[in-house]
Specification:
The protein is an all-alpha fold. The protein has a single domain, classed as HflD-like (YcfC-like, Orthogonal Bundle). 71% of the residues lie in helices and 0% in strands. It has ten helices and no strands. Helix 1 packs antiparallel against helix 8, helix 2 crosses helix 8 and helix 6 packs across helix 8. The longest helix is centred in the N-terminal third of the chain and has 26 residues.
Length: 208
């Protein structure tokens, strides 16, 4: 197993963790706080020395690793199929963003401006999520290709939930950028899926 493939798997886990948090929020009106904190914090790791530095530690990625294993496994459940769709959409959206360097600069500048809010309130505070959601709305949501989130209307119509969903989608894009920087390509999601699942399962086994 090459280190680069392990790093790609970690970045993929970051994508799937963000997608899982979107699904939880849209269908249950809430999501686990520890993975949410890891996911939001990843947006502000702009100068990491290695891949894991983006997420803090492997425990912070446990939700994403589990979701990756299920969604890319042989028989994913219906909810995991939905999360897989979000993950693939994030990869597709990142590819579109890559062709818009000015927008990438704008996103980077606004995330840097939001850093002060995180330092003051913490990464899971509603003010932070609203700030990040506005970045997503003003940039990525203007693309013709959009990520349609499915869930229960009573949850989706709550402003705080909508902000959390957009903030997690923005963080998912950050992981998709990282995955691309590590050599990840869309065709690998089909032809290397078993290897990614095996790596994720191995990491989870070591964490238990």
């Amino acid at each position: 197993m090459s280190a680069s493939l392990r790093d790609q798997t970690l970045a993929l886990a970051g994508i799937f963790q963000a997608a899982s948090l979107v699904h939880h929020t849209a269908t249950k009106g809430q999501c686990p706080q520890d993975p949410l904190e890891t996911t939001i914090r990843s947006l502000f790791q702009t100068d990491p020395s290695n891949t894991l530095d983006v997420y803090g530690d492997l425990y912070g990625l446990r939700e994403g690793l589990k979701t990756l294993s299920r969604a890319m496994g042989q028989q994913p459940a219906s909810q995991d199929t939905q999360i897989l769709r979000y993950g693939l959409s994030l990869v597709q959206l990142e590819a579109r963003l890559r062709k818009q360097p000015d927008m990438m600069d704008t996103i980077g500048e606004r995330i840097e401006q939001a850093r002060r809010t995180v330092e003051h309130f913490g990464p899971t505070h509603p003010n932070v999520q609203r700030n990040l959601a506005s970045i997503y709305q003003d940039t990525l949501s203007t693309f013709r290709i959009k990520i349609n989130v499915n869930g229960h209307r009573q949850y989706l119509e709550i402003e705080e939930n909508a902000a959390r969903i957009r903030a997690c989608l923005l963080a998912g894009i950050r992981s998709a950028v990282l995955w691309r920087q590590l050599g990840g390509r869309r065709w690998q999601l089909l032809f290397r899926r078993k290897r990614h699942v095996a790596i994720a399962d191995g990491i989870l086994h070591d964490l238990d």
